[in-house]
Amino acid sequence: MLDFTEASLKKVLTRYNVALEKAMTPEEAAEELYPKDELIYPIAKAIFEGEEDDVIEGLQAAIDAGKDPIALIDDALMVGMGVVTRLYDEGVIFLPNVMMSADAMLAGIEFCKENSQVAPVTKGTVVCHVAEGDVHDIGKNIVTALLRANGYNVVDLGRDVPVDEVLAAVAEHNPIMVTGTALMTTTMYAFKEVNDKLLEKGYKIPFACGGGAVNQDFVSQYELGIYGEEAADAPKIADAIVAGTTDIAALREKFHKH
Amino acid sequence: MAAKRYTSMAYASADEMTFGVSKYPVKAGLGLEIGAGYTIPEVNYAPRPEAGASKEKLIREYERITTDIMSRMVQVGFPAVILETEHVQQMSNNPSWGAEVAHAQKTIMEEYHDEYGIKCALRHTIGDIRENRDFLQLRGDKYSVFLEAFEECAKAGADLLSVESMGGKEVFDYAVLRNDIAGILYSIGCLGSIDMELIWSDIAAIAKKTGTVAAGDTDCAQANTAMFIGGGLLDKNLAHTLAIIARAISAPRSLVAYECGAQGPGKDCGYENVIVKAITGMPMTQEGKTSTCAHSDVMGNLIMQCCDCWSNESVEYHGEFGGTTVQCWAESLAYDCALMNTALETKNDKVLRDLLMLSDRYRDPQAYVLAYDNAYRVGEAIVKDGENIYLRAKNAAIECCNIVSEGAAGKLELSRFEAKALADAKAALEALPDDMDKFMDDCLTKYQSEVKVFLPENYGF
How many independent structural domains does chain B possess? Predict the structure, then answer.
């Protein structure tokens, strides 16, 4: 069988991911970012490791030591999740790590809520849905996990969501943003309807869209549309909105890559 | 019919395999013999979204598409073509729509065949409509409509019947985002195979009744999801070493179609088809560098190595500088086939096969395992326990790990992240039981608890 020499192979292809890999392991990088507080550190580390039982154990220890359960959401759970999302953004860890950490964080938030009479405050609410007629929801599931991981309250409407249901959720929850995902060209046209009905009812809120066959040209055709090429763009768009950039043109300028 | 399991390889060695030649060629359509010594372009397309507004608009759109492709094939002098129509949901949910599209397309193809003698066939890929908003509904009310769509299209002119079925996807989507190798094995290897046996027994019976060809399935819903999430070299969503394990596990799952009476050509986006061909000897469609209109991959040349039909996956119908999209992509596919057919006629087929394979062999672990020699080894691991859907899927996964490890000891470069994901997956696989019943029971308990949308009754449990 034909084969390359080592030298000839390099003239045909380059595995850039190997060439550019960071020197530090994910665990070493995380260790540098954990808070030093001896009650918070084990919770943050358990979040990074995606160990739900250890998260609960750490929270219980912190509550027993007098920490406020609701304060622990921001001071411990979100801090741990911040380590995870930062290392994901820097390319040190991969998505499954984020998903497992998000599961552990959500379990931790539930535990904190069960141990308090006070409702936690989030960075804002985002309404997420998969276009009407489309049942492909893995992209939406990634988006919702990443938004929650970044401190947002997510109203997850699921898949194949009728346009009017999106409108009803917007009316009920007053979100900072709506997201829509679709795999197929034939279903993504529902986004235009969502856009038109939002405008009709006077909701001028950013509508972040992405997925399978969805592209920037298409999303740019309707007034509220902002194209997200990656699921990881969703929390970044939300962060920009929370930071004060609510103008659609400005958001497009920032997030449209093509 | 019950599945007749493969327990041996169709080819005595990997080197016997090449493009355009299969052990069991398939006669189909208007004068075509697939896998009989020549490769055939298989053109795939999607209507413009607005065409779905009514049945009449949709039929007219497919008439334009069909005429465009057939005329370009004749204009540039290509002897054969297959058209693949992947149903938009309206065509499968309303079987008469799909049937009328098939009839309209076939009428045009017959005109070209009669006038110019061009050999051609029409594949219809029925949409897997067996789901509702909240759950997969694999054995529910929609099953009869699903089967009716196959039968009506077959009666109306479709020559090759396919589907991209989704059994196991609800568990897979959960597992793949959590590096859960047992869940990937359970969803594709076990749940997927169970559903495949149900549907392909029925599809093969419809093909027999209508004088058409039960062509094959693809694990698009799962292995391709893993490949797409894995993305390019710099994407950080899934280790490519895990994506190729999912692919290896998909081979025994897609094999089930042929065990239930399918004859090929297997469907284009089944990158596992090279393994399936090694086991069955049946012709396969593949896609790679010519499917960049639909998605990127890291093995665009390599995957052409043993194809019988060569596809572009899908392209939306609209205008380009060089004609409509279907004309441009059909012409590209057909030129590739002309090159492969020239290699076959001049007895240079193995040289071209090896050039295609080698150009991508070390590009990625996914490419490395699907190189025909390694794919053959995965096939051998599958047929070793061919009667047991769990063990053969597990064997495929373990052999895949072994192949990547061996490659990494040589010229296949892995990042530390990919190497760790591989080592973790291998350890997880080695910890799994040998007993299928125990594995199935454990997984049923676990995923019923963790995956809200998993309904065991979809699989007859």
Answer: 1
Spatial CB neighbours of B459, under 8 Å, sequence gap ≥ 6: B138, B167, B191, B194, B195
Q: Are strands B319-320 and B323-324 parallel, antiparallel or unpaired?
A: antiparallel
Task: For residue B126, list its beta bridge partners.
Answer: B163
Q: Which amino acid is at A183?
A: L
Nearest CA in chain A to B242: A96
Question: Which uninterrupted H or E stretch holds B23?
Answer: strand B21-28
Chain A residues with beta carbon closer than 8 angstroms to that of B362: 4, 9, 13, 15
Q: CA torsion B268→B64→B296→B322, rounded to 10°?
A: 130
User: What contacts A7, CB < 8 A, 6 or more positions away?
Assistant: none
Q: Which of B49, B411, B415 sits opposite A189 (nearest CB)?
A: B49
CB within 8 Å of B7: residues ≥ 6 apart: B383, B386, B387
Residue-wise pLDDT for B153-182, tens only, equals: 999 999 999 999 999 999 999 999 999 999
Q: Nearest by CB to B236, from A12, A95, A160: name it.
A: A95
Q: In CATH, what number is assigned to the domain containing residue A106?
A: 1.10.1240.10
| Cα distance from N-terminal residue to C-terminal residue, chain B | 20
Task: Select the residue of A2, A20, A189 nearest B354 (Cβ to Cβ).
Answer: A2
Mean pLDDT of chain A: 94
CA-nearest of B6, B3, B32, B31 to B20 is B32
**Residues with Cβ within 8 Å of residue B151, at least 6 apart in sequence:** B95, B206, B209, B210
Residue B5 lies in a domain: no
Mean pLDDT throughout B441-450?
97
Walk across the sheet containing A207-210 and list its strands.
A153-156, A125-130, A177-181, A207-210, A225-227
Does residue B128 belong to any structural domain of this protein? yes
Q: Let me know whether A27 and A72 are in one domain.
A: yes
| B235 within domain boundaries | yes
Give the span between the Cα atoms of A183 and A141, in whole angstroms.
13
Q: Which domain holds residue A96?
A: 21-113
The pLDDT value recorded for residue A24 is 83
- State the alpha helices, DSSP H only, in B185-324: 193-210, 225-230, 240-259, 273-280
Q: Please tell me the predicted confidence (pLDDT) of residue B1.
A: 60
Is residue A135 domain-shared with residue A30, that is, in the same domain? no
**A8 domain-assigned:** no
Q: Which of chain B's residues have a Cβ under 8 Å away from the Cβ of A96?
A: 176-179, 238
Task: Give DSSP secondary structure letters for A99-138.
Answer: HHHHHHHHHHHHHHHHT-SSPPP-S-EEEEEEPTT----H
CA A212 to chain B, closest CA, distance in angstroms equals: 9
State the CB neighbour count (10 A cutoff) for residue A95: 24
Average pLDDT over residues B185-204: 98
Residue B367 falls inside a structural domain: yes
In terms of domains, do A47 and A107 share one? yes
Domain that holds residue B143: 12-457
Domain boundary among A113, A133, A166: A113
The answer to whether residue A158 neighbours chain B at the CB level (below 8 Å) is yes
Residues of chain A contacting B453 with CB distance shorter than 8 Å: none
Q: How confident is the model at residue B79, as a pLDDT? A: 98
Token pair belonging to A141: 């599931």
Q: Report the amino acid identity of residue B166.
A: M
Give pTM, 2 decimals.
0.94
Is residue B144 a contact partner of residue B130, using CB atoms and an 8 Å limit?
A: no
Sign of the Cα torsion A229, A231, A234, A240 reads negative
pLDDT interval class at B2 (50, 70, 90): confident
pLDDT digits (tens, 9 = 90+) for A118-144: 888 899 999 999 999 888 899 999 999
Contact B225 A138 (CB under 8 A): yes
